[in-house]
Amino acid sequence: MTQSVPKNETQAVPNNSTQNVTHFGGRRPRHSDRLALEEGIQYLTCGVGDETFALNVAQVREVLDLCPFARVPNMPAYVRGMIDVRGQTVPVIDLRVKFGMSPVEPSDTTRIMVLEVVTGNRPLVIGALTDRVIEVTSLDKGEVGPPPEIGISWRSDIIRGIGRRLGKFVIVLNLNKVFAIDNLMAD
User: Fold this and answer.
1) Burial bucket for residue 186 (CB in 10 Å: 0-12, 13-18, 19+)
2) For 11-27+40-186, CATH number?
């Protein structure tokens, strides 16, 4: 089923098992790594552990129910395997493991977000395993800032900003940096 996302409208993403694919209609990813967040951008919010992350819907191809993975030997622990998405082989990255959290058994809310990212000058399609998909929404106006300074060196380049939605922190990810080849190989 195709789901269109009107601008500036919040829309919950279906969770029932009869609807296994949510499309985010022909939008192409933006190739900008700027920290500034444009007003009016729609985000797909997802939960990993207790944290809420936001992904620009322009980089979200679709959301899938959990499906079996083909395991690949000698891959990093955060690569769960490969899936077939309409004839295309797509690697699936476990966001819990990628972000340093303990892996958990999948649940009824576990989803695979099929994402379009750019690493270097090369576009990639990657599946991202998440504990739950929450909604497509805008973040609260005036509530998005840069990643915090914490006095030590850390990989803040994967974060475009810290926002708020309904009073909760939302970490806006820079997907091109999260899934950059050097970041994938470094772990």
Assistant:
1) exposed
2) 2.40.50.180
